[in-house]
Specification:
The complex is a heterodimer of chains A (330) and B (429). Chain A is α/β, with parallel strands linked by helices. Helices cover 37% and strands 14% of the residues of chain A. Chain A has helices at 22-39, 64-75, 87-91, 94-105, 120-125, 143-157, 175-186, 215-219, 243-250, 254-257, 280-283, 291-310, and strands at 53-58, 79-84, 110-115, 131-137, 164-168, 190-194, 209-212, 224-227, 265-267. In chain A, the strands form two sheets. Chain A has a five-stranded parallel sheet. A four-stranded parallel sheet of chain A has the order 2-1-3-4. Chain B has a single domain, classed as TIM Barrel. In chain B, strands 1, 2, 3, 4, 5, 16, 17 and 18 form an eight-stranded mixed sheet that branches. An eight-stranded parallel sheet of chain B has the order 6-7-8-9-10-13-14-15, with helices on both faces. Chain B has a two-stranded parallel sheet with strand order 11-12. The chains are: A alpha/beta (330), B alpha/beta (429). Chain A binds chain B through residues 18, 93-94, 96-97, 115, 117-120, 122-123, 137-141, 175, 178, 201-204, 206-207, and chain B through 198-200, 202-208, 275-276, 317-318, 320-326.
Chain lengths: 330, 429
């Protein structure tokens, strides 16, 4: 890792892909590559975050993202704490700011946050002295997912520029789609959005995306097919008539996939609804599906992000009387 | 009782079209005489003389849409604090909305507001009462009795009467008493969980949007019901080009309809939401630049009759939340005049037309005696300099809440004196 310069990145928090530049993204992906190699060794542990505290604060249930961040922190030597806020705590609005103030007083070095409402992580970051990483906020962004997707593609195909990426599914509600559309756009890929109109925001074209309502047309000559999860409650007639109808028109099967490039890769952020948005056998086809590889890349990308953000923190005592915490009697 | 002569003033009375240099005399809380010849040979004997220094003297502003936390949320705003804010903003009469806790949907509660206002407020306060009990959009409240108790108009405030049959009967029943039905026009199922204008910004922020069509559809429905029933209808605040166009068509058909626009919807557009700025969360939502321009045009061509502040105080705690959870509302009493004057300084409206929308026009719609400069009219006056430059400063606000997105905005035009019933209630030092 000696050829990666130990300078801080241009951002203190990672709240979204929006605001990142192509060099920022390339730097993260380059460093991630090195962590992929490290993670494949028997000794996966480093101590560059030794003595630092990472808090994973999840206001929404998540298994893979939280585990991935936890593993990433631990492999870099940080002390990792997981906090899961209950549903009732979310409803009490003040809790978010109060929680931020409380956590801030514990002097964490990194806070990883997932929240069901768009913008909540950015709001929280304003109250924190440490680096904040957005692990998904509402329908807004999920930057580490987009980064791990980009890493997966880059390792398979060598580059992102000029590729045609078809994103398919519930784009309206998807933070993964928003982050991916932005990242792929910044890196010069052509992005297509394939979904029924009810699952697409009206102004999709303003993000430089080509919109398709017909999956065969949208998949034509695509290099990458990125499937999104469709939540069950949206298939009962509210957005699409039924699971059966959705799968018929927008589920990925071999017939539809045949329209894409012969070597096109299949991606999915998980968890998958087999038989709803993706054919089960296809999902497991290791010649086409990189779904498990995405999970592996996730850990490496998160290690790279934790590493880069930690470079902002100097090992100096804070200046001024920051230790007095008025009213902390609880 | 004392006689006061306001001399050396630019008298502007939108009701009569008067705009001249002259003087105005008040006695016992009423205007006695005004005009270019008044006080030419000196003020009446024993009169207190106030030299206006060439400033504009016009009727005090009437604000048709003010939310106050009393009763129920006095920590956000009381009738007393709202009246201080009003006085500082040159507003001499505020029409308070009934969505309090409890809801003003009963004669006793209308009287409670009037009593509280009389005892505690320095400006005139008139209640609008609920159209439906509990603002639930189902059963009609006692409209006639509340009108007798001096409810000036009826509204379900920020709630919508979704059921067309209910609205039809309300308009029909109200027509017998010539009551004004004031409705917030937004098709609720189409607005859904929306928290800002639908569009590119909402999409990028991942926030659910309210399409402009939600407003258009409701205005068009309401106009058809007015056509059917003959009830007097007022759209509480319009924010979209299409709805304004629909309103213009309704007026052209001769329907007894009127409309207001909130200052926010011409002073800002959706860009003000920026990165989840909850202080810019308001209802109707800030719209696109094209819609904002349509509001300005609608004011200029008379489709929109009234400018209201939509003063909606919210405490910091309810605003410092993720955008979707944050409270809706912006305070506006103290910024209404300078922000409205932007339309005059930009050349969009003449001073007379602009002031009419905050004085004579709301007075006509509500049947109030104020809103004009005329012998016998209440001495509710505003004296201001339309050109004084200053920066909006939330620290100087009299409102209990500070939820304003306008802090730091440079504006022109500042209140010098506010007079209610001949008594000075605000003086800029």
């Amino acid at each position: 890792m000696s050829d990666i310069s130990p300078t801080p990145p241009s951002f203190r928090h990672l709240l979204g892909i929006e605001g990142l530049s192509a060099p920022d993204i390339t730097e993260i992906l380059d460093l991630s590559d090195k962590y992929v190699a490290q993670n494949r060794q028997v000794d996966k542990k480093r101590s560059i975050l030794g003595g630092r505290t990472q808090i994973n604060l999840f206001f929404e249930t998540s298994t893979r993202t939280r585990t991935s961040f936890e593993l990433a922190g631990k492999r870099l030597g940080a002390d990792v704490i997981n906090m899961t806020a209950t549903a009732s705590a979310i409803k009490k609005g003040e809790t978010l700011i109060d929680t931020a103030a409380t956590l801030n007083a514990m002097h964490p070095d990194t806070l990883v946050v997932r929240h069901p409402h768009s913008g909540a992580v950015a709001l929280l970051s304003q109250k924190m002295d440490c680096s904040v990483i957005n692990a998904g906020d509402g329908s807004h962004e999920h930057p580490t997912q987009a980064l791990l997707d980009a890493l997966t593609i880059r390792r398979r195909l060598g580059h992102l520029h000029g590729l045609t990426v078809a994103i398919c599914g519930d784009i309206l509600h998807s933070r993964v789609a928003r982050s991916n559309i932005m990242l792929l756009g910044i890196m010069g890929a052509h992005v297509r959005a394939i979904a029924p109109p009810t699952l697409l925001p009206g102004q999709m074209d303003r993000m430089g995306v080509e919109v398709f309502h017909n999956m065969e047309e949208g998949l034509a000559d695509a290099d990458i097919v990125m499937m999104l999860r469709l939540q069950n409650e949206r298939m009962n007639g509210a957005y699409v008539p039924s699971t059966r109808e959705y799968y018929h028109f927008f589920g990925l099967d071999r017939a539809k996939l045949s329209k894409a490039k012969p070597e096109a890769l299949i991606m999915h952020p998980g968890p998958m609804n087999r038989g709803v948005e993706i054919d089960s056998e296809l999902a497991d086809d290791i010649s086409r599906s990189v779904i498990r590889e995405q999970v592996e890349m996730g850990v490496a990308v998160r290690m790279a992000v934790l590493d880069l953000l930690s470079r902002h923190a100097t090992n100096q005592p804070p200046i001024g009387p920051t230790d007095t915490l008025a009213g902390d009697g609880a | 009782m004392s006689v006061v002569a306001y001399t050396n003033a630019r008298l502007i009375d939108p009701a009569s079209g008067l705009d001249c240099i002259g003087a105005l005399v008040t006695e016992d809380g009423k205007i006695t005489e005004l005009g270019p010849e008044v006080c030419k040979d000196g003020a009446p004997e024993g009169a207190e003389i106030i030299d206006c220094g060439g400033r504009i003297l016009c009727p005090g502003l009437i604000d048709m849409r003010v939310f106050v936390g009393e009763p129920g949320a006095e920590h956000k705003e009381t009738l007393a604090s709202a009246s201080q804010a009003a006085a500082a903003g040159g507003v001499t009469c505020i029409i308070v909305q009934p969505n309090t806790e409890p809801v003003i949907d009963d004669v006793a509660l209308v009287e409670y507001i009037k009593r509280q206002a009389r005892d505690k407020a320095s400006v005139r306060i008139h209640p609008m009462a609920a159209i439906t009990r509990g603002l639930e959009g189902q059963q009609m409240a006692e409209l006639g009795l509340m009108a007798e108790a001096d409810a000036v108009a009826f509204t379900d405030a920020d709630r919508v009467i979704a059921d067309a049959q209910v609205m039809r009967r309300v308009l029909s029943y109200a027509s017998a008493f010539n009551l004004l039905i004031c409705h917030y026009p937004e098709e609720p199922s189409l607005a859904g969980r929306g928290v800002m204008n639908s569009g590119e910004i909402a999409m990028r922020l991942g926030l659910p949007g309210i399409p402009t069509q939600a407003e258009t559809i409701m205005v068009e429905r309401d106009l058809r019901l007015v056509e059917m029933t003959g009830g007097r209808y007022h759209a509480a605040c319009l924010s979209t080009a299409q709805a304004i166009e629909a309103m213009a068509r309704g007026k052209a058909r001769g329907l007894p309809v009127s409309a207001a626009a909130a200052v926010h919807n011409f002073a800002m557009n959706e860009v003000a939401v920026g990165e989840y700025r909850s202080f810019a969360k308001t209802a109707p939502p800030l719209r696109s630049e094209a819609d904002r321009q349509a509001v300005v045009d609608g004011l200029a061509d008379g489709t929109i009759d009234v400018i209201c502040s939509c003063h909606d105080p919210q405490d910091v705690e309810s605003k410092r939340l993720p955008f979707e959870l944050a409270a809706t509302g912006i305070i506006g009493l103290e910024t209404m005049l300078p922000l409205a004057l932007e339309l005059y300084h930009n050349g969009a409206l003449s001073l007379l037309d602009l002031l009419a929308k905050m004085t004579s026009r709301p007075a006509e719609l509500l049947g109030l005696r104020g809103g004009k400069l005329a012998p016998g009219a209440p001495a509710d006056l505003l004296i201001f300099d339309p050109n004084t430059p200053w920066r909006i400063d939330e620290d100087g606000f009299h409102s209990k809440s500070k939820n304003t997105p306008y802090h730091g905005r440079p504006v022109q035009g500042r209140v010098w004196r506010t007079i209610v019933a001949g008594k000075m209630v605000y003086s800029d030092t």
